[in-house]
TrEMBL record:
Recorded topology in the membrane: Multi-pass membrane protein
Record keyword Lyase present: no
Keywords linked to the UniProt accession: Membrane, Transmembrane, Transmembrane helix
Designated name of the protein: Aromatic acid exporter family protein
UniProt cross-references to Pfam families, sorted A to Z: FUSC_2 (PF13515)
């Protein structure tokens, strides 16, 4: 019974996704609670955005979403420092984010870049502080890296467990 449950779980994208999200969310929530003086909520959001439900391409998607979030956050900071009106900052930021994603051949995750850029621009224009822009950028980057590490580490563990349980089926 336990072996059957393990075999099913190790080949279920749904179960694997839930495990990854729970691990990532727990780490992000710990950061959010532990460091209230920082914008750690954005790390938590970034973790959830980076982790993918599709186990077949989870690593590629996690890398692409991490790059995309980084592009969007960096673009948001760039346009924060231009001192353009918020609407122009966002419009030019959207164009720039999409163009950079196209340049890196990750256009499929350009939406993530645009969301990160818009959040940085809107949030920072309200606070009128470059420190807040850098804080948001750092939190998004940390969140993306955590999501990526969770994806890579669970992929490695799942691969080992799949090999172990598939070998046991032949020896029964």
């Amino acid at each position: 019974m336990r072996k059957t449950l393990m075999r099913y779980s190790l080949h279920s994208d749904f179960i694997i996704y839930l495990i990854r999200i729970l691990i990532g969310f727990s780490i992000g929530y710990f950061l959010y609670i532990s460091f209230p003086e920082y914008s750690a909520i954005w790390a938590l959001i970034s973790i959830v955005l980076v982790i993918s439900p599709d186990d077949n391409e989870a690593t590629k998607i996690a890398f692409d979403r991490t790059k995309s979030n980084f592009i969007g956050s960096a673009t948001g900071i760039l346009f924060y420092f231009t001192n353009l009106p918020q609407m122009w900052s966002m419009l030019l930021g959207v164009i720039t984010s999409v163009a950079i994603c196209r340049l890196f051949n990750i256009l499929s995750v350009a939406r993530t870049a645009m969301v990160a850029m818009i959040i940085v621009v809107v949030h920072e224009h309200q606070l009128k502080s470059y420190v807040a822009a850098l804080d948001r950028f750092a939190c998004v980057t940390i969140g993306c890296l955590i999501g990526l590490i969770v994806t890579l580490s669970t992929s490695y563990i799942i691969k080992i467990l799949r090999e172990k349980y598939s070998m046991e089926t032949f020896s029964e």
